[in-house]
């Protein structure tokens, strides 16, 4: 029996139809759409290892492997590409600086294991408890603070080549407003390409490593370090990432269910969390970046109306094949600091704005003190780089402190305000998060 039924004539999608996850077009069309998914994810996925110092081929390998694992765990019922998560950038950068790459990988493994455990709980008990623990004001705050916390990193790259960075940033914004549809959604990717060309004209490119790299070869692997004393304090910085990955996965599942018009897809929420957890754990064990479901690929599905999981098998296999070229990875690693400074000025800000959009889409009432202080305190702590330092190198960074502060202020403040009936609490029912970036529910 075939894994996928042929949709219609296999060549086209009727204006009022969608290609469901268990369907596919003919293989030439499916392969073309699968490659399009690779292009859509690539601009974001390759930036994470560049910004964190991880090898690009290794990250590509585990994004492809993670995608295939996701399809296997969800039994081909949920289309998704697992690419590098931007939520890992800040903790990985901080952990690498303070305790080394091995400790950063240990943090990624810890996130993956915890996410998989939460996935098992959600699959068994349902997603309602996640909805109550992570309401829109908290979800938006945590996503926003992770993006805004990276402002200093963007400035550091920008200042190394301000002219190239400014041109790259300007072109990235221009592409976003000039192009329609798919090209507009990959404006960051196009901005990197344009900035790279401009940097080449200015003589800022170094191809030494590219010339030495082989055309074909295995990615480089590195194991996590759980023995270094600084590892365990570094792990604390990764815990807020779990909340972001939960929000992204829950939002992805609900977004697909809404677009396909099949509420039964929501039953795969727990499996999605388990799959992403396993993928992230595997990547962390061998030197890759943590993964998450990708909004860029949601955009491709929305524009093509093709939700076939067959296309994602093609995308996963294509990513694995690309990872087998060290020269390809060396070209990506040759992107100069000025180009990175330009795109990350926009990119990190956009991560923050996604958090703000969660507030807007879910109509968070910022007239209520609990909501005001939840967001206000957390954002200032994250942007200001607050830190708590202890003995033997133990340190809690701004993201950890800000996340804990947001959770305590929101849930503690609500409990007190409702007990006292002061009207300072969040007036909304604790509704589900997602779909992230979707239309607000009436």
Automatic annotation (TrEMBL):
It comes from the Bacteria. Belongs to the nucleobase:cation symporter-2 (NCS2) (TC 2.A.40) family. Pfam families: Xan_ur_permease. It is found in: Membrane. GO terms for cellular component: plasma membrane. InterPro entries: NCS2 (IPR006043). The chain crosses the membrane at residues 54-73, 80-99, 105-130, 137-155, 161-179, 186-203, 226-247, 306-325, 337-360, 372-388, 394-412. Its main location: membrane. It is a multi-pass membrane protein. It comes from Microbacterium bovistercoris. The keyword ATP-binding does not apply. This is Nitrate reductase. Keywords: Membrane, Transmembrane, Transmembrane helix, Transport. GO terms for molecular function: xanthine transmembrane transporter activity.
